[in-house]
């Protein structure tokens, strides 16, 4: 990937809950929030066309239109191919996946329009589609890159043979894999999944890096609190540092839009864990010692 497509911030701000924040109905207020984050060096934002029934991308685009100077400073990841039930025009009203050439072209064009950007830095297939015609899907993705609509393409939640089948049909390299990974969900580190991502040259992004808050509960939460105090960190910052210690340095996609929490995460952005600390946290998370 070119340098401008490399994730160069300690974490990416996930926009999944943006539409749920009533205070950000005020475009000016959200534009202020957005500019403050970019000024902090947090210029990567993770979207999906399904978030908030397109409202997340739309709200983001409205803020950029209000602050045109931010347009060249932000970097955008978005995902597509999920059809939510209310958008299914069939009699079934069923949630499903669509990786057809026509649909992906519409998704990419729609996201560009709503976000108000000239290019999607990364476009990811959100979920693997059992009905995927790899030749058609690959053609849509390659054409989007050739047209300058997308900087790089990747996948989310794909198994190795699923992304390899797609890659075999493509001219461009897949650049990113977004997977669920955290202290609360470390299985990918032990079943070969994470190793396959690195072996195939995909940059890992970790969604739900705090396990939806479950890392703060029970024995693991107690251990994080104790260590965070010793390391002059926060529990959330320590959990993200645990992720960044991995080979490939997976970039966490955080879900919080709370300024104070974001500031606290930034304070721990350079925290580095030694091996004993990393394994001690793993032991607490799995409730047993390594073999």
Automatic annotation (TrEMBL):
Residues 12-275 form the NADP-dependent oxidoreductase domain. Gene3D superfamilies: NADP-dependent oxidoreductase domain (3.20.20.100). PANTHER family: NADH-SPECIFIC METHYLGLYOXAL REDUCTASE-RELATED, OXIDOREDUCTASE YDHF. This is Aldo/keto reductase. It comes from Salinicola lusitanus. The lineage of its organism: Bacteria, Pseudomonadati, Pseudomonadota, Gammaproteobacteria, Oceanospirillales.
